Structure formats: C-alpha cells, structure tokens
Amino acid sequence: MKIILLGYMASGKTSVGKKLAKRLNLSFIDLDEYISQQENLSIPAIFNEKGEIYFRRKETYYLKELLNNSQNFILALGGGTPCYGDNLKLINSYSNSFYLKRSLESTYIKLSKSKNKSKRPLIATISNIDLKEFIAKHLFERSPYYEQASNTIIVDGKTKKEIAKEIGIIIKSS
Ligand code: S3P
Question: ∠ at Cα 144 (139, 150), nearest 5°?
C-alpha cells in the first residue's frame, strides 16, 4: 500500500506522515528530503542554483521513481507537487491520497511564525505584510488540484496525533 499526503506548505504533511507511519508500521518518505538527498543539494540551493523549472522536473522524476517501485510507504509531497505536469494523475493511480486542508488564516499564522520560512524558497523573500495575499492567491490556484485527492482531511484545530488517527481509521476501513 502506498499512501500519499498532499496539501499546501505548513499543512502538516511531514509531521503527520511520520506519526502515521509509526501507527501503521510503514516506512515514511518525504519527497523534498528524497530530492535533496538524490541531488546532493538542499531545496533552497536547488532553487537558487538551478531554478524552479529544474526543481519541478526533478520533483516529477523522483515522484515517478518512488511510485514505480513495489515498496509500501507513506509519502509526504511538496506543496506544489500535485499541481505540475501529470503528477496528480500518477498520484491517484498509484495510491490512496489525502489532502491535508488548512484554512488561509491558519496557514498564514503558521508560515509567518515559522522559523523555517527561509528554507521555503517560494516565500523566503516575501514580507509578512504581503504573505497573506500571496497565500490566498496561491491557494486559489492550487486548491482545484488538492481537492482531487481521494480523501480530504480538515486539519485546523487538530493535533498531529488526531489527524494521523483520523487517516488511520479511514485506511483501515477501506
Ligand atoms: C513548495 C513547497 C515545499 C517544497 C518547495 C516548493 C511549493 O514543500 O517542495 O519549496 O511549491 O509549495 P513543503 O510544502 O513541504 O514546504
């Protein structure tokens, strides 16, 4: 079984994925971390040195590589992964996908307070004053892709543990 977590930046894909992996006794892979390891460069360095188009090509390449193998795992995608090329089609044909849906307000609060803002190339240079409008537009563009996941989980106000439990119940009953 392959389980994929998708959603916008700061939706909790990685932290929920780790919890869920423990719960279901499956291995956990974070796509950004995988890309970074394979390319021997951090995600910000890939964006800065090679550009976003290069990153998107590699993102699709490594997504395919992971989905084409027979291993079972929980995979946390990057926020943009489902929105490029034929990635979404691939995701839904190979796996059970879960959209971790966080509201604009909560996303803004998390991202503006995040110590990791500099590690997220798309928002690293955006001031907190402009960040909310950026997220609002970005969510508007990306939500139609996210909404095509096989399941949608509202994450606002829930702990990682509660979200992992909710997903675990859906998987076990399917
Ligand atoms: C991106 C989100 C990041 C990372 C890259 C691009 C995006 O992942 O893949 O910086 O396009 O939203 P997280 O969602 O884990 O921050």
Answer: 115
